[in-house]
Amino acid sequence: MRRLVAILFADMTGYTALMQENEQLAREKRRQLKDALDHGIKNFNGTTLQFYGDGSLSIFNSAIEAVNSALYIQQELLKAPKVDVRIGIHTGDVIIDDANIYGDGVNFASRIESLALPGSILVSEKVYDEIKNQEGISAIELGYFELKNIKQPARVYAINNSGIVVPSRNAIKGKTKPPANRLAVLPFVNMSADPENEYFSDGITEELLNSLTKVDGLQVTSRTSAFAFKGKNDDIRDIAVKLNVDKILEGSVRKSGNRVRITAQLINAADGYHIWSENYDRNLTDIFEVQDEISGIIATRLKENLAKPAKIQTVKPASHNIEAYTNYLKGLHYLNRYTPGDAKTAINYFEQAIRLDQNYALVYAVIAETYAYLGSTGQMSPPKAFDLVKEYSDRALQLDDTIAEAHVARASRLLYHDWKWKEAYAALQRAIGLNPGAVSAYKMLGFYYIAVGQKRDAVRALEEAAKIDPLNAGINHALGNMYMFTEQYEEAIAQAEKNLEINPNMRASLELKAWAIGMGGDWEAALPLFREVHRLTNHPLKGLMGLGYCLASLGKRDDAMECVQKIEEWQRAEPDVVLDGDLVGIWFALGNYDKVFYHIGRCRERRAAPVNFFLEYPAFEALKNDPRYWELKKNISTIQG
What we know:
Elements: E1 2-12, H1 15-21, H2 23-43, E2 47-51, E3 55-60, H3 63-76, E4 85-97, E5 100-102, H4 104-115, E6 121-124, H5 125-131, E7 139-145, E8 154-159, E9 181-185, E10 189-190, H6 198-212, E11 218-220, H7 223-227, H8 236-243, E12 247-256, E13 259-268, E14 273-283, H9 287-302, H10 322-335, H11 340-356, H12 361-376, H13 382-399, H14 404-418, H15 421-434, H16 439-451, H17 455-468, H18 473-485, H19 489-502, H20 507-519, H21 523-536, H22 545-553, H23 557-573, H24 580-590, H25 593-606, H26 611-614, H27 627-639
Parallel strand pairs: 4-6, 9-11, 9-12, 10-12
Antiparallel strand pairs: 1-3, 1-4, 2-3, 4-5, 6-8, 7-8, 12-13, 13-14
Helix pairs in contact: 1-2, 2-3, 6-9, 6-10, 10-11, 11-12, 12-13, 12-14, 13-14, 14-15, 14-16, 15-16, 16-17, 16-18, 17-18, 18-19, 18-20, 19-20, 20-21, 21-22, 22-23, 22-24, 23-24, 24-25
C-alpha cells in the first residue's frame, strides 16, 4: 500500500559500548528508551514499524505529530538515567507491505537521522514547511548537506525548543559525501569618499566572480545569491549556511583618482578563521592584473582540497580603455537593479563603452542580454528587441566566442523568438561549458526541455541552477514552474513560499502558488490569491488570466467572461501588446476550444510566445483529445531548427 507519511528514525548512541562496560545500565536505558518510544509514538497517533533494541522506525500521518512525538521522546529521555538519542524526520511517499516499508523517503529520513547529535531532532525541508507556523515548535536552518546516495543537496533544520540539543554545522558528520570546495564572493564594500563609486566596487566583485568560476574543482555561488547580503552585517557563519558554502571571500575597494586599493580576505566559514588577507595598491590600469592575482591566490590556497589540480585561467582584459571599462561597470550596476527603466539606463552606459572601444566584446554580449530581457518581458516590441539581440550577440561572438553571456543571449532569440530548439540547446551547452556558474543558461535550458517534452530534465536543470544560486528569486520561481509541469504541486508551493518569505508582494510567486494550489485540486483556496495578484498589478485590466481561469473552473462563467472582456479591452488600448496567451487559458477553462485554437494560432503567427511551452502545462491535457492539437504540434515541428 502506497502512503504519504512522516517517517521518524530514532537511534540510541553508544549502546554497544555501554553493553560491554555496564550491561545492567545498558538494559535499563534500553527499557527507558522503549517506554518513551511506546508512549511518545502512540500518544501522537504514530505506528512503530520496526524496533531494533537501540532504535526504531515509526510513521505518522502528519509531520506535526511526528515532531511533537520527537519532542516528547527527547524530554522523557532527559530523566535519569539519561538516554542519548538522535532523531531524524522526513515526509515522503512510501510503500508499506506488512511490517516492511520501502521508498526513497525512508533512505532520506535515515540520512537526516545520521546527521543528528545525541539529544537533537533534525528535520528535512519538507517537514519544516509543515511545522514552521506551528505554535510550540521552533526550528532553525543548518543549511544544505550532501547526503550519501541522495542526488540533490538536502536542506536540513534543527528543532530548537527548550532542552533540545542544537548542533553546530561544523559538528555534524553523518553519512555525507566528501566535502567540495564551495566559495561565495560577497559584494566588496565601497570605501571611497564618493558614493558614486559604488558601481566600481560592485564591478570588482563581478569580475572576480567571473574569474573564479573558471577554476576547475571550485564551485562558486552565483551573483544574485551573494549580492543578497549587500549592505548587511550578517554573521559569516550564517551566510555560509544560507549559501551552502565552506569558504567566503570578502573585501573592500577604495578608489581615489587613478589609484585604487583593494583589500581581500578569504574566510573559513565553519569557524570564521581568516585563511589569508591581502592589500593591493595599484594604478587603475592594473585592475585586471589585480583580479588575476587574487583569483590565483584563492585557487592556490584551496588546491590541496580540490579533486584535481586547480587550473587557473588568466583574466583576459576585456578592454584596455579604462574609460570604456568604467562605463561598462556603471551599466552593469544599473542592469543588476532588475527594473526595465534601469535596464534602459544600463544600455546607455554600454553604448558609451562601445563608442570608446568598438572591439569591447563583453559589452556587446551584455547589451544583447539586456535587450533579451526587455523583449521577453514585454517592455519592448519582441521582433525589434530580438533583432537587436541577434545583432549584438553576433558581434560579440565575432570578436570573442569564449564569452558565455554572448551564447546565452544568442540562445534567447533562438528559443523565445525563432523556435529553433536544437540550435538553442547547442548555444546553451556552449555557455555552460564556458561558465558552469551561468545560471541564466540553466534557466533557459529548463524551458528548452519543456519545449521538447523532457519535463524531468527541465526539473533537473533548474535544481542544478538553484544549487549554484540558492537565493536567486528568478531561479527559484523557474524551478517552481518546472515542478508545475511535472505535477509536483507541493514542491511548487514550497518554491513560491521561499520567494514570498523574502518579498510577500512578489506577484509572480504569489501567482505560482495560486496555480499550484488550484491545479492540486482546490480552486476555492486559490481564488483569493488570484484576486490579490490582480490587485497588486494596480491596473484594472492586468493580471487577469489566472483569475479568469480560476473563476471558470469554479463554474463562475459570467465573472470569467468579464476577465476576457477586460483583457480584450487592454489589447485594443495597446495594440503592440500580445495577450493571446492569456485568452487561451481562460477560453480553455470555459470549454470553448474554437477560441482556444484561434488564439494559439495568433501566438504562432506573431511569435508572441513559444506555444510548445504553455501547451505542456498539465492544465491543457484535455486538448490532446482534439485533432487540432496534433495538427498544431506537427506545424510547429516544421519551424524547428
